[in-house]
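Practice problem 4.
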């Protein structure tokens, strides 16, 4: 191993650790709030919708799988859908209308009041996610944005913004999947380990 390759590895690792620690030091309450909102939605019969492009599409599928299968606890499957997976739907919409509408039409078809839509983007400027968030608002879906610094064009359409304070795509993505894992862990906590903590929120509306 050369000194240069070792430097590259250690610098990236250090930058990632620093950003992760900074994010959770400053934004733990936001993560907990979103997890509680998700748990309440699931407890009331709602579902999770996830969307993203490229690497964020993979994260959307990853997180949906954690809900439907399991995270750490042995517990019942939880309803979650990755809007990135049905190639027939995506290509039909993209071909007949526009790539900008591939998530919007799915949200309009599948989203209901009480569901939660999580839109994942490093830039916050993906037009198809902006359209999806707008559609979510129309349907009464709670909208959550997992974004990089600034939030981009998605920010005004997010009821809750989980913003990683960086403009470096790989580092943002590394922190975003950690946020996703924490949401999975906390949802399980609220639904299966500490139901009494969730009860006041279920009775509050």
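Answer key:
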């Amino acid at each position: 191993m050369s000194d240069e390759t070792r430097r590259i590895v250690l610098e990236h690792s250090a930058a990632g650790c620093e950003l992760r620690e900074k994010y959770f030091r400053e934004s733990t309450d936001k993560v907990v709030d979103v997890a509680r909102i998700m748990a309440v939605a699931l407890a009331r019969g709602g579902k999770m919708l996830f969307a993203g492009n490229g690497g964020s599409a993979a994260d959307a599928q990853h997180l949906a799988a954690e809900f439907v299968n399991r995270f750490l606890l042995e517990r019942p499957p939880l309803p979650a859908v990755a809007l990135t997976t049905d190639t027939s739907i995506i290509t039909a919409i993209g071909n007949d209308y526009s790539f900008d509408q591939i998530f919007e039409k799915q949200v309009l078809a599948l989203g209901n009041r009480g569901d939660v839509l999580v839109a994942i983007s490093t830039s916050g400027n993906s037009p198809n996610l902006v359209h999806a968030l707008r559609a979510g608002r129309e349907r009464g879906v709670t909208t959550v944005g997992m974004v990089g610094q600034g939030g981009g064009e998605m920010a005004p359409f997010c009821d809750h913004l989980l913003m990683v304070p960086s403009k470096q795509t790989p580092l943002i993505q590394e922190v975003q999947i950690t946020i996703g894992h924490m949401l999975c862990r906390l949802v399980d906590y609220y639904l299966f380990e500490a139901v009494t903590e969730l009860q006041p929120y279920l009775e509050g509306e």
